[in-house]
Amino acid sequence: METNGSLGIIAGSGKLPFILADSAHRRGERVVCVALRNEADPSLRDRVDRFHWCGVAKVGRLIRLFKKEGVDRAVMVGKVQKSRMYTPFRLLRMRPDFTTFKIWYRRTRDKSDGTLLGEFARELESKGIRVMDSSPWIQENLAGKGTLSRRNPSASEQRDIRFGVKIALGLGQLDVGQSVAVKEEAVIAVEAMEGTDAMIRRAGDLAGGGFVVVKMAKPLQDLRFDIPTIGPATIQSMADAGGRVLVVEASKTLMIDPDDLIAEANRLGICVVGVDTREMEG
Question: What's residue 222's pLDDT?
Fold first, then answer.
């Protein structure tokens, strides 16, 4: 990865910005973080070389900060609550700058994640900042293939896994969400804007436990912006709701604190499986 510039991190919430910053430092890179206000953890300041706050609707400011700091590559990591963009009086509260206004209102045919983030990337790249996939920095945290926990899925759970993968990939083609909960080869709940943990809780309310959660990358998902992510909290949500099996896509799903995640799954008797969708299609 030849470069003379610094690495920029556009940081949302969660642990992923910390993981990426630490990995970049181990590679000897200078890290400049633009932290999204009301999303990022302030303590990230102590793990990077340069730190700036920026509003989520201030794309022009973000670009100016990166250019001033000599950033030539950027990675967007961490959660961003897209629902904030649909609250009443959002224009008054967020006060988008001209660059953001142009992207949101003039250059997008719809407001799907793929469309918005694609235009965001094009704007950065037009200013000489290449937007990159985070995977080169987080290889050791990507899910492997096969049963990752101590418990293997039962025969009925394996049927639900095959059914759930098919449904999740179909929904992904429509840009609906990454996750689906199934039980006895019936769809219990589908993830939309609320996120995976909220969907898991809803599935427990509806199905009373014993369900399978399948979380897949969307078939055309741009992994520069949104890599499927699970962590120990996901396992706890499964246990609280009565979920029995968590299925993720191998090599395309980030595992936060993977050792703790698997230890928690084993303690709670939850099966975790990594699947290769190409093999399942075959």
Answer: 74
Count of helix runs (H) and strand runs (E) in the chain? 10, 13
Q: Give all domains of the chain, ordered by start, each with its CATH number.
A: 6-137 (3.40.50.20), 142-281 (3.40.140.80)
For residue 33, give the amino acid letter. C
pLDDT at residue 53 greater than cutoff 80: yes
Which among 38, 279, 248 has a CA at the least distance from the CA of 147?
A: 248
Structure tokens at 244: 């029995």
Instruction: Tell how strand 6-11 and strand 71-77 pair up.
Output: parallel
The dihedrals phi and psi of 72, each to the nearest 5 degrees, come to -115, -5
Q: How far apart are CA 230 and CA 197, in angstroms?
A: 10
CA nearest to 8, candidates 35, 44, 32, 41: 32
pLDDT grade, residue 246 (50/70/90)?
very high
Write the pLDDT tens digit of every residue in 108-167.
666 566 677 788 889 999 999 999 989 889 999 999 999 999 999 999 999 999 999 999
Cα distance between residue 33 and residue 151, in whole Å: 40
Is the full-model pTM beyond 0.70? Answer: yes
Exposed e or buried b per residue across 29-39, where buried means at least 16 C-beta atoms within 10 angstroms of its C-beta: bbbbbbbbeeb
Cα gap 127→157, rounded to integer Å: 49
Tell which residue, 267, 200, 194, 206, has the closest CA to residue 237: 200
